[in-house]
Each structure stands twice: as C-alpha cells, then as structure tokens.
Amino acid sequence: MSQTHAPARLVVRTVAVDETEPLIPRTDPRHPLVWMRRDEGIVGLGEVLRIESSGHSRIEDAASAWTSIAAAADIDDRVGLPGTGLVAFGAFAFADESEAMSVLIVPELVIGRRDGRAWATRIGFETPAEVTIPEPAPKRQVPRVTFEPGTLPPEAYESAVAEAVRRIDAGEFEKAVLARQLVGTLSDDAGLRATINRLAEDYPDTWVFAVDGLIGASPETLVRVDHGTVSARVLAGTAPRGAGEASDRDHAATLAASEKNLAEHALAVASAVQRLEPHTTRLDTSPEPFTLQLPNLWHLATDLKGTLGDGSNSLDLVKAVHPTAAVAGTPRKIALRAIAELEGFDRGRYAGPVGWVDGDGDGEWAIALRCAQVDLDGTVTAYAGCGIVHDSVPADELAETDMKFRPIVEAFGG
Ligand SMILES: C=C(O[C@@H]1C=C(C(=O)O)C=C[C@H]1O)C(=O)O
C-alpha cells in the first residue's frame, strides 16, 4: 500500500451554501469524482490524498489507513448530513489477484446536496480559504465511442456459459457469475461529464458514480452505514422490459414466479445475510423478492436493513460482504476460481465496491455494475455479466449481457 502524502493532519471545513445544483457539470471533466442518486449526492474536485492498496488485504489496508487519517483530522462540519465533513471516494478491485489498484481519494473540495440542503467542504493541510464553487459547464453531447468485443467475444461467452452449466450439473458449484467486455476508445478532447450526466438523466434511481476513471450507474447497494444502521439491496434475477404495458407487466410477473431466477436470487440473499448477520443485533429482509423496474430491464430485489452491534464501519462491512453471490457465485471460492478460468480476463474494478466513506466510517457503497473503466490513454472497457445456474441457456445469458451493457454503451454514444 502506498500514500502520496504522509497521513498528516487534514483540516476539514463544511459550510452550508445556497445552491450547488447542478452538481455533475461542476466536476472536473477528466478526473470526475461523483456519487449521485435522484439528483442528490456529492461531487469532488481536486485531490488532497490518495490511498492505494492491492491484493488480498486491499480493503482492510485501506480501512486501517482511513481510520488513522480520520482520527487525526480536524473536522468542523456545520451541516451534519451523510456526505458532509471528511469524505473519501473509493473504488476497489473485484479480485485479490487483480492488477487494478484499489483507491480511496480525498478531494480538495466536495460539494453536495441532500434533503433540500446544499453544502461545500474544503479539505487541506492548512485552514482553508473561502470556498469558491465552480460554475457549471455548458451541456455537451455525449462522446461517440465505438465498442468492439473484448477478450471474451459473444460466441466464446456462450461457450463459457455452457461450460459453467456443465460444471454445475457435475456438482462442482451451484452458481457462478460470468461477464464479458466491450472495448472502445475515447478521443483526447472528450471529457466524461456528458457521459455521467446522461447516466444520471436516464437512470435516476441508480447510484451514478465516477471514481478514478470508473464510471457507471449501479442499481445494487452493496452496503450503507448511517449512525449505527446498515442497509443493502440484493439483486439477482433479470428479465427484459416488455414492449407495451401489458407485456411489461407479464415480464415482471414471469420473473417473480421463475424458479430459475428465484433460486439464483435466494443464493445472493443468503450470502449477504450470512455475511452481515455477525455484525448486527438485528437484520430484517424484505419478505418476498420484489421486482425492481429499471429503464432497460427488471430485476428481482431484496432489501436488507439492520442495526449494527459491533461498531463496524462501512469499509469493515464492504470487506465482510464482498464479493457477494450476485457477482461471484456459490460456493464463493469455487465460483471465483471458475470465473477466473472461464472469463480469462482481469475484471479490474468491475463488480467491486464503489462509493464513499466519511470520517466516522459511515458511507454508501454500491457494486460497480453497468459501468466502464476509462484509462488515461482513452481506452474504455465496459463490463456486463449474468448469474449462471443449472438451467441457464447460453443465448439468453448473452442477450441479458446486451441489456446490461445498454446504459453505459449509450452514455458513451454507442
Ligand atoms: C453481474 C451483473 O449483474 C448482477 C447479476 C444479475 C443477474 O444475473 O440477474 C442481476 C443483477 C446483478 O447483481 C452485471 O450487471 O454485470
């Protein structure tokens, strides 16, 4: 693990301001830091501190570095809402073996809005000067990125799904999530703001995020911690939207009654409950999976809500639950081995935790889905995957990845 600065004492000042709307057009077009849902959230500008970690202990290492930085910080927070005070944006690699760095980034300026209130937070090594909130940039067209299949092209993806089904039928494991990539190039002059804006406009009910080039709109809450309470939303089981109202309702009803999807969903819920329960004094799950409507598809969803009993912070819980069966499989270890073997590429931060943590350890983390990693050389790698169980049909799973690619591909003009 490395840090660009010694963990000196950060000085943090949050003040209420009149207005921060619109947030996304005020971010840095090349290095945007964004966490938004339904027009609320935070964006970060500049970078005061970066904590990098990798390997098996990447989440604990980041958590312990963060705890010492937060403990030493001088924080004056006049607003006191989730996302005020000291904040780091974070993105973690999916796999222990990944080449991708995991990061926590502390911006120089955070601006946000929530519950009708707006604020600005200055973070530095000295008492900060007055805050100046950048003006919103004029709206631009989304860039035009042409995507091509990556390492696992469509036919190879179908073969990988068929092989996973064979292994499931041979009793090796119950479920594994297999993903594929699309790769494109972003031109030099194109920034990322229009893409993020498009995601936020088209998918307002998802977590729209941008952290260190990882851009996306995830419907799946990995874990949220707020003053001793914990919540999560487990998704697994997917169906297309119908063309008309009646057919759309039919698709949702079929999904809610589908044994294949219910079985896949139950595995994901069981893994989340099993991992969170030891940290809670109480943990409730919504009684039946409900159908969650998104513009591109239907998901089966279960919400979890609980009370923390052991003082865990959001990063401790991220560590406890990642990777869930919604993005890895069951049993976890065997599924992870099958994924590495059958996908044959590094997932990077796709399907990893993405979100933010504050000075008390509270925070909001999603699973990085419906996303792409934009590298400094302009390479854009998008990812989408599906849970494979014993009755999965390769062509259907391939079609499902196309539905899941839609948000990010369209946001890049593809
Ligand atoms: C793996 C992805 O999505 C996950 C897999 C799902 C499924 O197989 O039904 C549903 C939601 C997500 O938990 C993805 O979007 O890439």
From TrEMBL:
Q: Which family does it belong to?
A: Belongs to the isochorismate synthase family.
Which Pfam families has this protein been placed in? Chorismate_bind
EC nos: 5.4.4.2
Ranges that cross the membrane: none
Q: Which SUPFAM superfamilies match?
A: ADC synthase
Key word Isomerase present:
yes
Q: Which residues form the Chorismate-utilising enzyme C-terminal domain?
A: 155-404
Q: Which UniProt keywords apply?
A: Isomerase
| Reactions listed under catalytic activity | chorismate = isochorismate
Give the superkingdom in one word.
Answer: Bacteria
Upper taxonomic classification of the species?
A: Bacteria, Bacillati, Actinomycetota, Actinomycetes, Micrococcales
Q: What is this protein called?
A: isochorismate synthase
InterPro entries membership: ADC_synthase, Chorismate_C, IsoChor_synthase
- The top EC class, named as a word, is isomerase
| UniProt xrefs under PANTHER family | ISOCHORISMATE SYNTHASE ENTC
